[in-house]
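Consider the tokenized backbone below.
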């Protein structure tokens, strides 16, 4: 059986990479390539929608897919926990899967998971993320996801220490974690999580060098798992076993 895929935002950088992956994936057919302003009724003929648009358009794409009961993978950044929470009842009522993927890079997924695993042992945690100067949103979806994972891992310890958080230069707090966003030419995507304790610090760095090569494995995994998603699911780490945090034998 062939899964027909509609990509919205197909003309963008990420959209183009997704289209190439779909074309080369066994069992999948690129059924529609839509722009951000195209009529979204066309997604009703697809078995799966992949959203690679902009933060301003993404919500409309997701709601259109849900209304037509077509599962959707959301690759667009800029979705906060509050925005995602508003989608949950819609997806549940329509019995439609929505998979939010803040970053398709497996290295990024692992980096965020490692940071969350380490966060229980360090009270000081800050994130520095850098993207090209054309990226619209900040903090990045990856930084937001990382901060939320860190907070979830620290339910017993509580929020991280963030002195002088009222000062604008201290960054934006996401789930209590200070996040500092750089937007500059000459960079694709880079994130560093710095965890500090008495007399030591630990840095976890992920750097995207070639997007097409970095994102392709994660896109293929999203394609494989998207149709089995029920309701709203956030992160590739939620649909694959990355082996971090598993109990020791």
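A designed sequence for it:
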């Amino acid at each position: 059986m062939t899964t027909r895929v509609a990509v919205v935002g197909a003309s963008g950088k990420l959209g183009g990479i997704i289209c190439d992956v779909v074309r080369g994936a066994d069992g999948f057919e690129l059924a529609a390539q839509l722009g951000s302003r195209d009529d979204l009724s066309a997604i009703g003929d697809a078995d799966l929608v992949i959203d690679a648009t902009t933060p301003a358009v993404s919500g409309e794409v997701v709601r259109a897919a849900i209304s037509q009961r077509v599962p959707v993978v959301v690759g667009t950044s800029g979705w906060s926990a509050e925005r995602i929470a508003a989608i949950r009842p819609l997806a549940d009522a329509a019995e439609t899967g929505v998979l939010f993927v803040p970053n398709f890079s497996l290295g990024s997924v692992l980096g965020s998971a490692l940071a969350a695993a380490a966060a229980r042992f360090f009270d000081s945690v800050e994130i520095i993320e850098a993207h090209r100067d054309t990226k619209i949103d900040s903090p990045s979806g990856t930084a937001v996801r990382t901060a939320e994972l860190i907070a979830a891992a620290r339910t017993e310890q509580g929020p991280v220490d963030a002195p002088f958080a009222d000062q604008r230069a201290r960054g934006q707090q996401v789930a209590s974690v200070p996040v500092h966003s750089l937007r500059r030419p000459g960079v694709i995507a880079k994130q560093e999580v710095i965890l500090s304790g008495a007399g030591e610090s630990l840095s976890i760095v992920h750097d995207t060098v070639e997007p097409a090569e970095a994102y392709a494995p994660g896109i293929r995994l999203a394609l494989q798992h998207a149709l089995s998603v029920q309701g709203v699911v956030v992160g590739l780490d939620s649909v694959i076993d990355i082996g971090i945090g598993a109990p020791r034998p």
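The chain has a mean pLDDT of 95.
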